[in-house]
Each structure stands twice: as C-alpha cells, then as structure tokens.
Amino acid sequence: MAFVIEQIKLRQIEMPLVHFFQTSFGRTYSRKIVLVEVIAGGISGWGEVTAGENPFYNEEWTDSSWFILRDFVAPRVLGHEFASASEVGDRSAHIRGHFMARGGLEAACWDLEAKQKGIPLYKAIGGGAHKQIACGVSIGIQDDVDQLLAKIDTEINAGYRRIKMKIAPGWDVEVIRAVRKRFPDVLLTADANSAYRLEDWQLLAALDEFNLMMIEQPLAHDEIIDHAELQAKLKTPICLDECIRSAHQAEQAIRMKAGRIINIKLGRVGGFAEAIKVHDVAMKHNIPVWCGGMLESGIGRAANIALSTLPNFVLPGDVSASKRYWKKEVITTPVEVSSEGLITVPEGPGFGFDVDHAFLDSITVRQETISKP
Ligand code: OSB
Ligand code: MG
Questions:
Q1: Is residue 233 located within the same domain as residue 198?
Q2: Parent domain of 359
C-alpha cells in the first residue's frame, strides 16, 4: 500500500531517568529525545530518534538529529510516493552517517504503513517468529560495588534473564570478580562502549575466568580489524555494537571473525530495512543477535519489541520494562516484563501502544511541523 507523507512533526521531549545511567563515556540523568510523527491520509506514524544527549556513543546527538531531519531528510521524503516503508531509507542514503536521525523517520514510516494496513508493526516488518521477547537488563556503572550488587539482585528477583554490566578502566576486573562471587550462575555480560585499546588485551583476557556470555564492544567505535585480533586472543565471545552500522559491515566483521555475536540497534543502522539485513546476514553465518537499547521512551521501546520478533533474535536483549527508566511513560500502558523475564508482543495495529498526548505535550520542549512548500 503506497503512501505520500504530507507532514512531518518533529518534537523534542525531556524526561528524567528514574536512576542515572553511566557508561564508559559519561553519565546521563535526563533524556532529551526527538520523536518523529509522519502524517499521510489522516494516519500518524510514530518513530523515535535514539541519539544521546552528546556525540559520545556515536557522532549524533539530540540537536544534530533535529537539524538533519528538518533540513536534509524532510525535503527528500515530503510529497514523495513510497510504495513501501522499505524504500524510505534510500531517499536519504546520500547523507553520510546520521543513521539514528534517519532511522527515527524510517521507523515512523513503518508504523504508518502498519496502521494503514491495520496490522501490528511486527507483521509489517516480516517478524513474528517470537510471540514473547526474552529480556535482560543493562546496568550502568554505579557509585560503588555495593550499589551495583543491590541493583543486580533487584533485577534477578524481577525475573530478568541476563545481566549486562557496564565496564570501563578502573571498573572492570575486580568489580566483575565481586559480581561473580555473589552471583556465580547468572548469565552475565560486560559492555565497555569502546573504552579499551588492543594493547589492553591482557586485561581483557583476564576476564575469561569469569565465564561471561560475551564482552561487548571493547575496542574503538569504528574498529573491526583490531576486534578480530583481540577475539583470537580471548575465550570470551566478543559482541559487536558501535562498529556495526550496516549489513555490509556486519558481513565484513563476521568474515574477519571480529566477534561471535551482534547487538542490533534500530537507530544505529538507520532503521528497520537495514536492521533486517544485518539480522539476515548474521543468521546466514550462524551468528546470534539480540536487540540493544538506547534508553528509549515507550515509542522506541515498542519498535525494539517488534524488531526482536525476527527469528535470529535468540539471546535476551536490553529491552526491558518502562518503569526501570521512567516515572511516567509517553504511552498510555507502559511496557511490562513478566516474572519470567518476558515481554508479550502487542497485537494492536502499528507499534501497538497508544500515545499519551496530554503527557507528551507536557514534556515537549520544542516542536516544528514541516510541510511541503
Ligand atoms: O552500549 O548498549 C549500549 C545506553 C546508552 C548508550 C549505549 C548503550 C546503552 C545501554 C542501555 O546499554 C540499554 C538500555 O537499557 O536501553
Ligand atoms: Mg553496547
């Protein structure tokens, strides 16, 4: 079913996190999120830009995404006839990088298409292999080890199936040792967000004794070759996050043996069309994938749930309950996780939740409607 986008509404919201989130590149107390609403034939599709507040995870941040969408993507897609949302990404493929900005709009178009067809988002993207999503949690660097142990305890008791802890120089070997001592059997992973160099390989090899499921993106954000060299020195599987921005890079990384697992993030690769290609390449090579998170609001969270229904999402992801992040959600029913650590995939049309418009308006700090001139 074809559509022509008549209007794009950009909206920036500000939402404080329930608890700060700290990675090797910094601490976040409050999210500044850009939401994209695309309007065609009286239907609104919603998408979330997953960029952070600073260009520290990748080159994007809240403001850059706003200007990329307003000045470069919107003029390319407004008034253009798309036969399917799968074509939307191509219209801005001439832009270097800025995948999260472009991915936010692309995801909105998939929601629009699904609503137009009256089907859930997961069906529109060709998913549905899983009716429930297996959930893990990502736990940031804390002020001290006791605080970390208490948080892990809470999440295990809530039913989460895998614990990921953030690491950085000075918060690595001894902290993981303390976690393993207290929780000998928990499925445990560590995410470095590019905090190490190949020269640090002996420190990373020292983590082999802790039986981690994986170590995520230990080396530079744009590095594949060094990861291959590092993987050859480690028993622990490397999971690639930051450095996989396309299916082509995924294929190259897999061929080079730069890692044995891939974390797929919708925004990082520019939307559903490319995320599905990354998924397919990984599946072809027997590389398991899981869905990463970027501290999303309910809108981005719902998109991650739909993505996670593709067949090769076989490991617990970072998509977890809304209440771990927000006092109040932008959708009328928050994302909930069962005591077995599962999210039931919604069956309603589009992304499957209702936007809480009044609440959204109350946390909106800027808004702009773009129409075809
Ligand atoms: O590397 O996975 C990451 C959050 C911000 C930036 C990068 C990452 C993360 C997370 C949080 O790990 C995942 C989540 O709970 O949404
Ligand atoms: Mg990561």
A1: yes
A2: 3-119+353-371
**Ligand 1 centroid to residue 211 C-alpha, Å:** 22
258 contacts 227 by C-beta, under 8 angstroms: yes
Among the options 166, 257, 277, 327, which is catalytic?
166
Same structural domain for residues 169 and 290? yes
Full-model pTM: 0.98
Instruction: Tell me how far CA of residue 59 lies from CA of 84, 86, 99, in angstroms.
Output: 29, 25, 10
Atom of ligand 1 nearest to the CA of 295: 16
Spatial distance between the Cα atoms of 37 and 45, rounded to a whole number of angstroms: 6
**Pair 85, 144 in one domain:** no
Q: Residues lining ligand 2 (ion), CB within 5 A?
A: 191, 216, 241
Give mean pLDDT, residues 83-108: 98
Quick one: tokens of 354?
């209702």
Cα dihedral 235, 240, 246, 249 sign: negative
166 as an active site residue: the answer is yes
